[in-house]
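User: Fold both of these, please.

Assistant: Here is the first one.
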Amino acid sequence: MVPNPIIETTLRENDASGVRTRIRYCLVALALSVLVAIAWSFCKIDFNKLAVGTPILFSFVYQMFPPDLSDLSKVVKGAGETLAMATIGTIFATLLAFPLALLAARNTTPGLGVYRIARTILNISRSTETLVFALVFVAAVGFGPFAGVLAITFHMIGAIGKVFAETIETVDEGPLEALALTGAGKLKIIRYGLIPDVMPGLIAGALYMWEFSVRTSTVLGIVGAGGIGQILKDTVDLLNFNKMITVLAVILLMVAVIDFISDKLRHMILEPTDGSIKEPQFIQV
C-alpha cells in the first residue's frame, strides 16, 4: 500500500500536539504539587499535635452538658440582633449593588473604562472580609449593631453586585434588540426589557446572599459589632462551656431556619407555571 503523505503529515502533527498537551499537563501538575508542598510547609501540619489535642477537645464537649439555659432570653435577643443586622445590611447592599452591577455587566455597561472601574469596586468590596470592615466601622461609629450593619453592607455590595452582574450578562438579547428597533433608549430598554427578565434571578440571588450574611454576622460581635457573636466570645473567654453549647445551638437553629425560609422563597420566585424549578445562574461567596 502506497503511503499517503497528507495522512502521514496529519498523524505526525497529531502526535506532536498530543506530546505538547501531555507536557503541558505535566508542568501544570508539577507546579500545583510545588504550591501544595509550599502551603503544607507554611501551615506546619503536625498530626501528632492533633492526636495529643483530641482528648482535650472531647473534654470540652463533655463539659458542655448539660446546657446552661439561665440566660436563654439574652441569647435569643442577641440572635435577633444578628438577624436584624444581616437583613438591613443585605437590603442596603442590594440597593447599592444594583446600579454597580449594571455598570459591571458587559451587555449594559456604557464603556470599557466604566466596566473596569465597576468591576474593581466590586472586587475590592468582595475581597475585604466582613470582620475587617467591622473593625473599621467599630473604630468609626463605635460599638454596637450599626457598625455590624455597615460592615455587612460594604462587604455584600461586592458579593451581590457580582451575582447581579453575572445574572444580567446571561439575559436573552432578543427582546432587548426588539425594543431597540422600536427606538427605545438605553434606560427604557433596561427598565422595560432587562429588569423584568432578570428580576426573579436577582431576587433569588439576594435571598441567597441574605443567608450568607446571617451566617457571617454571627461572629461580628467578636470585634464589638453587635449580635450574638459577643455572647459567644464571652462564653469562650470565660470557658463557660455549658452556656457555649446553648449559644451554638441557637446559632445553628437560626441559620437552619433562615436557610429553609430562603430556599422556599427562591423556589416560589423561580418556579415557572409548569411546576418545574429553574435555578438561577450565580456564583458562590
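And the second sequence with its predicted structure:
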Amino acid sequence: MERPTHPTHPTHLLIFDLDGTVLDGHGAGHQAMERAFRAVMGQPGGFDHLDFAGRTDPAMLHLAAARLGLTITEEQWPRLLDAYVSALRETAPATRALPGVPALLRRLARNPQVGLAVGTGNVEAGAAIKLRAAGLADVFPVGGYGSDGESREAMLAVAVARARRFYGAEGAPLVTVGDTPRDVAAAHALGFRCIAVATGRYVQPDLEAAGADAALASLEDAAAFYRAVSWLSGRELSD
C-alpha cells in the first residue's frame, strides 16, 4: 500500500475501534485472558460469562478479579499482561477482518484528506497481533490502546491527542467509529461524533437508542460511510 510516511494536515480524522468494528476475533481475547488468568491468578476467570463489548483489556481483567473477590497485585499485573499477550499469539490466528473493512480502510488510507487512527480497548501489543492476523498491520500508523488507559474515555483521549500530533491536524473534524453503546458514550464524553456499526452484538436500533450520531448496518457500503462522515464532520469526504 502506497502512503506518505507522515501525511500532513488531513481534512478528516477517523478513529476506528477494532473488535466488532474492524475485526472478528472469534473469541481469541476471551480464550487468551482465560489462559493468562489461570496461569497467574491460579483459577479460572470466567471470561466467557463477562461482557467484553466496549471495555478495555485492563478493565476486563480487573472485572474478572473483582467478581471472584481477588485483587491483582502490582507484582501480578505485568505478569498477567505478559501472559495474556503470549496466549493471544496462539489464539489470534483465527482473527479476521469484517466484510468490507479491508477495502474501505485501504481506500481511506490512500486518501490524502484522511488521517486514520485506531482507538481500541486492546493493549497495544494485543492490537498489533490481531491486526497482523487479519492482514491489516499496515493500515493504522497511530492510535490509543487499553494500555494507555483503563476507561474507554481515557484511551480515546490518548488516541485523539496522538492522531492530532501525528497528522498535524489540530483543527480537523474528528469522527469515531465503533460498534457498542460504550463507544458512543466515550466519544460524546469527549465532545466527538460517533458512527456506530451493527457488526458486533448490537443492532442498529440499539445503537440509535444509545445516541449514535449515525448508525450503519456494516462497513460494506463505502458510499454510505463517506456520506455519514461528510454529514457529521461538516466537510465533504471524497476520493
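Residues 28-93 form one domain.
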